[in-house]
Amino acid sequence: MNIFYYDIAVNVPLRKCFTYKSNTKIPVGTRVQVSFGTKKVLGIVIRKLKKINPQIKKNTIKDAIPIDEHKCFDKSTFDSVLWASEYYHHPIGEVFFSFIPTILRKDASKKITRIKTKINYSINEADKSFELNDEQKKAINNISKIKGFDPSLLYGVTGSGKTEVYLRLTENYIKKDKSVLILVPEINLTPQLINRFKNRFNGEIGVFHSNLTPKKRFETWLKSKFGVIKIVIGTRSSIMMPLDELGLIIVDEEHDQSYRQSEGFKFSARDMAIKRSQIENIPLILGSATPSLQTLKLVSEKKFKKFEILKRTDGKSPPKLIALDINNSELIEGIAEESMTAIEKTISKGEQALVFINRRGFAPLSECADCGWVASCKLCDSNLVFHKSKNRLICHKCESVFKVSKACPECNSSKIETHGLGTEKIEEVLKSKFVNIPIIRFDHDSTKRKGSLEEIYSQIHESRAAILVGTQMLTKGHDFPRVTMCVILNADNGLISPELNAIEKISQQLIQVSGRAGRNNNLAKVIIQTRYPDDLNLKKIKTGNYKLIADQCLENSKLKNFPPYSSICLLRCTSPNSNNCLNFLNRAHQILKSKNKLNAIGPLPSIPSKVKGNSRFHLVLQSSTKTYLNRVLKFLINEFENWPEAKKIKWSFDIDPYDMS
Ligand SMILES: [Zn+2]
Ligand SMILES: [Zn+2]
């Protein structure tokens, strides 16, 4: 009887596979059941072994029992996930299991069974009743000609009709019986995009995101795998959807930070999309009005193609951005009189105004006027935000909720005051000033309840004069045709931030906010309230020309050897005891001193430095070449295995981090 040996990945935080045997051939990517310690667990076959490690005694090797007759990962998803586990240096089992439907992760009685019913997709021609403009036509024609792996940036200003380009390209693939994967930053914020696809195609559109029930997600996964669903629209968790005959991947709003998973297995779905399309050897479209610097750099190096749509489909000119100097203005809870007048004028014409403030809640600071005590979270290094609607103090880092104390716990004074601005306070101020006008708050709190987002959208679309108050949620994908003016309240935080990609982020945000306005109006106006009207970056942002500012950011990064011109990894460390973190990171820093092509900075406290009772520190590791950085990370992993310091803490790598804190 033949015996085959396999490397199996199990869902444990270890950067290695385990050897098992079987007397049947099991294909790579299949689920198996194995004994692990005293437990029976599930694993994934990673490779068939030609010979086994001589240190392992053959008679101690246990059996792997195959579960499904179908593979969990086909060749290309398998290779992509394997790449991710190596690129992100994350435990291989955890990486593979994060791309398996929850229902299949633990339960061997749940099987992958073929779905036989096939749907024939057809195109609803009546939905294509309008003319494409020349730029749209050019993009569609040229992208249609691409064969194999050849990524394109679709750089389209907001309102330029990128979605129509996605629809036409998808149609081409559907006609060839191929499938298409469309990634979006946050699914519940993009009902318009999903509806456009539903209207255009007769046939099921798979919608996939983490808020669905495990059962629903499994159903969509199975339907994709067996070719029943050919179009999937999903968030970052859908990047490894097992679509049959995948022909095209689209990443909409590719610059958006929601593509990064920052907890547990830290990865970027945008970057994995690039890798997957390379492995599948298919075209990839990265769409954005404010592309990331990485993408722009690859375009400039001719590694990515670029297609531009610089005209809006409605033919209207982009909104006018105005920097309003508030140094000598009287502010009514953060809103300048000029802004108030502009809001008043807008609603008197039966139009809508949008007030943007990137902070939810009522006030970010509760302070004792007598002794200076500040309400802060017991578990985190974070001040509590007062939420008036709930009459509670909430920690925005861990979401812990606290009662509002009537007296100061330090000096017993009753003079507890709230300071600063949040969406709730702005809503209150506007309500008292504009009594008969709907004031619609749009933030994490007002949209949390199921169905509330739909209610808010329909309220906005049914109202005439109205004022929208919201956080960055407002900037993601949704169009508000009646909004003809915006006021941006706290842009200064972004302008003066020391964060290395702060200007890229704030300019993306401001241009995205202003893009929501004036879809139906020529005279749309965006007021940016600022104490730094002469700031050079602000002057560039005011032109509304994102390319101008992005080029400047790229040049700065090149001069300073920052990403995307170098590679960065954060070695993150958490422990209830901050000394344990420091001992570990100091030792790591010490041994890195001999690595002359690597720059190590730290240990630094992360921001916030404490979350849920755990202290957080990190070391910044920077190198000009990714290959060298990778080699160093592998060296570190080996070192850590033998360090007593490493046993006392939790460490992880954050590769290509979104921010450095
Ligand atoms: Zn006090
Ligand atoms: Zn907290």
Describe this structure as you would to a colleague.
With 661 residues, this protein is an alpha/beta fold. The protein folds into four domains: 4-106, GIY-YIG endonuclease; 122-309, P-loop containing nucleotide triphosphate hydrolases (Rossmann fold, 3-Layer(aba) Sandwich), CATH 3.40.50.300; 320-361 and 422-558, Rossmann fold, CATH 3.40.50; 567-655, Alpha-Beta Plaits (2-Layer Sandwich), CATH 3.30.70. The protein is 31% helix and 25% strand. Strands 10-11-8-12-15-7-16 form a seven-stranded parallel sheet, sandwiched between helices. Strands 17-29-28-20-27-26 form a six-stranded parallel sheet, with helices on both faces. The model has no long low-confidence stretch (mean pLDDT 92). The chain binds zinc ion (2 copies). Residues 377, 379-380, 382, 395, 397-398, 400 line the site of one zinc ion. The site of one zinc ion has 8 residues, from loops.
Features:
single chain; 661 residues; alpha/beta; GIY-YIG endonuclease; Rossmann fold; seven-stranded parallel sheet; six-stranded parallel sheet; 33 strands; globular; binds zinc ion
Structural class: alpha/beta
- Integer average pLDDT: 92
Could you name the CATH class of the largest domain?
Alpha Beta
Fraction in helix: 25-40%
CATH superfamily of the largest domain: P-loop containing nucleotide triphosphate hydrolases
Q: What ions, cofactors and ligands are bound?
A: zinc ion
Which architecture of the largest domain per CATH? 3-Layer(aba) Sandwich
Strand line-up across the major sheet: 10-11-8-12-15-7-16
